[in-house]
Design goal:
- The chain has 156 residues and is of the alpha+beta class.
- The chain has a single domain, classed as START domain (Alpha-D-Glucose-1,6-Bisphosphate, Chain A, domain 4), CATH 3.30.530.20.
- It is 24% helix and 40% strand.
- It is built from 3 helices and 7 strands; from the N terminus they run βααββββββα.
- It has a 7-stranded antiparallel β-sheet, covered by helices on one side.
- Strand 2 and strand 3 form a beta hairpin.
- Helix 2 crosses helix 3.
- The termini are far apart.
- This is ATPase.
- Belongs to the AHA1 family.
- It comes from Actinophytocola xinjiangensis.
């Protein structure tokens, strides 16, 4: 049975600024890795049908085994849909020999105007069974907090 995880946050910046950070390689490399991880983008093609490959490295892999190796998660992401100022959709496939991480997860980043900025809603559909739901939702919230820091720090 497929699972959907969610998180949201209001970012004190315009939809244009937030959307820009969703498609800027340096920004994505900085804000997408959740706390306790770093990321490195190996290729970047920000167009529908394009995508990127990211290696996420755990600061301390103890107790947090990676999907690809003990200390890493490698994920290939395709840009499935791009609607300027409104939505970015990724199809994500983890590199793993473990069938619990198999399949394609679809992550939708939706943007909506709010009086105090932009509400960002993230929906992760068809989450692989091996990914703990609470941990995943916490990781998405962490990425959203880092996205807010990135965008708000440049908007002011």
């Amino acid at each position: 049975m497929s699972r959907t995880d969610r998180a949201n946050r209001v970012i004190r910046a315009s939809r244009t600024a937030v959307y820009g950070a969703l498609l800027d390689q340096g920004a994505v490399e900085a804000w997408l890795p959740p706390d306790e991880m770093t990321g490195r983008i190996e290729r970047w093609d920000p167009r529908v049908g394009g995508g990127f490959r990211m290696t996420l490295t755990y600061a301390d892999p103890t107790g947090s085994p990676g999907k690809t190796s003990d200390g890493t998660d490698v994920v290939d992401l395709e840009f499935a849909d791009l609607v300027p100022g409104e939505r970015v959709v990724h199809r994500a496939v983890f590199e793993s020999d473990d069938p619990a991480y198999a399949g394609t997860m679809t992550m939708t980043w939706s943007l909506a105007d709010r009086d105090d900025g932009t509400e960002v809603n993230v929906t992760a559909a068809d989450v692989p069974a091996g990914i703990d739901q609470a941990v995943h939702e916490e990781a998405i919230a962490s990425s959203l907090a880092k996205l807010a820091g990135w965008v708000e720090g440049r908007a002011g």
